[in-house]
Design goal:
Blueprint: E1 2-3, E2 8-11, E3 14-17, H1 20-33, E4 48-50, E5 64-69, E6 72-77, E7 80-85, E8 88-94, E9 97-101, H2 111-127, E10 131-134, E11 136-141, E12 144-149, H3 156-165, E13 169-170, E14 176-180, E15 185-189, E16 193-196, H4 198-202, H5 205-211, E17 216-218, E18 221-225, H6 226-229, E19 237-238, E20 240-248, E21 255-258, H7 261-270, H8 279-295, E22 297-303, H9 305-309, H10 312-325
Parallel strand pairs: 3-4, 4-9, 12-20, 20-22
Antiparallel strand pairs: 1-2, 2-3, 5-6, 6-7, 7-8, 8-9, 10-14, 11-12, 11-13, 14-15, 15-19, 16-18, 17-18, 21-22
Helix pairs in contact: 7-8
């Protein structure tokens, strides 16, 4: 976490103004949950989350609920978004700016809900600055980078940890940002930790010693820090040369096969949160995804019974894929 200028702090490229009574604990929380990532691009100043704004709250808006789970509600009225969680709320009415109030009752919510509140706020704000969220992981080795794209439970985290144990580097788990630059689409790290349960840890002995001490995210799952477990294998950004869409099939064997560009683009759109939330940025986001498909080969990945017994099976196949894709784009 970077101190910017009192009373601001920075998280994931966003400046935050926080009440003095909550400042220390909230800074520690954000530092645990998110990677500090400076915004780069055409904007002339960073996005801002202000919990001490003089005027906040639009009670008269005709709100439509667009997301609700575990004590967190996201509503929308036209181009305005409002997030509510445990007495804390944020309204995002202007590009790159959010204002609201912070309540100590926020800390009574489950850790997963606390993290999701700020994750969604960051995604909405950074979306307006040309950095678009993607439900994906990214791993890198020898200058070649691979996106692992798919919903929860598709095998992204299993493949990521297997890659880390084989000496690869990674960005972050389950959520990252895409940014279109002059010469390429770049993936940027966002979240720090990854969620896992006791059965997952059994496949990766290196994680076992840390599991019981890790904070509880939701029932049965704990939050482990990638940069603590693999301190020299975490990178801030990468230029993908391959895109993998994994799925778990307990009845088959590990297999990778090429995917047509149109199917890959559709898969990316499905895993892009809020792609239609703001029509003024939808075209830019779609263009970013189209350019990503142009610069990177796409593959379907089946994680079968052999990968369940030995995750290294999938890593070895991934290494062969990377060898054939690396030449498509370099830094």
């Amino acid at each position: 976490m970077t101190l910017v200028s009192d009373p601001f702090v920075r998280a994931a490229g966003v400046q935050l103004r926080i009440p003095g009574t909550e400042r220390e604990v909230l800074v520690a929380f954000l530092d645990t949950m998110f990677r500090s990532q400076p915004i780069r691009g055409p904007m002339d100043k960073p996005a801002v989350i202000d919990f001490e704004a003089s005027e906040v709250g639009s009670a008269d808006q005709d709100w439509e609920e667009v997301h609700g789970a575990r004590g967190l509600t996201v509503r929308r009225a036209g181009a305005v978004f409002r997030l509510d969680c445990g007495g804390t709320f944020l309204e995002i009415a202007r590009p790159g700016q959010a204002a609201g109030r912070f309540s100590g009752c926020f800390w009574q919510q489950p850790l997963a809900t606390q993290r999701e509140f700020f994750l969604l706020a960051l995604l909405i704000l950074l979306h307006q600055h040309g950095q678009f969220g993607l439900h994906a992981n990214a791993v890198e080795r020898a200058g070649g980078s691979v996106l692992l794209v798919g919903p929860s439970g598709s095998g992204k985290t299993t493949l990521t940890i297997a890659c880390l144990e084989s000496g690869w580097a990674c960005l972050s788990d389950d959520a990252l940002l895409l940014e279109q630059r002059r010469d390429a689409v770049v993936a940027l790290a966002l979240r720090r930790g990854f969620a896992c349960d006791a059965s997952f840890v059994q496949r990766f002995p290196r994680l076992r010693a840390h599991f019981d001490k890790a904070p509880r995210l939701v029932e049965g799952k704990r939050l482990l820090r990638l940069d603590s477990l693999f301190p020299r294998q975490v990178v801030p950004d990468c230029i993908p040369c391959a895109i993998l869409f994994p799925r778990i099939d307990r009845g088959g064997l590990c297999e990778m096969s090429p995917m047509p560009a149109t199917e890959a683009l559709f898969g990316l759109i499905q895993q892009s949160p809020g792609i239609l939330a703001r029509l003024d940025t939808t075209r830019t986001q779609l263009e970013t995804l189209r350019r990503l498909v142009e610069q990177a080969h796409a593959y379907r990945v089946v994680l079968g019974t052999d990968a369940a017994r030995d995750p290294g099976v999938a890593v070895r196949q991934l290494e062969s894929v990377l060898g054939s894709s690396r030449g498509r784009h370099r830094r």
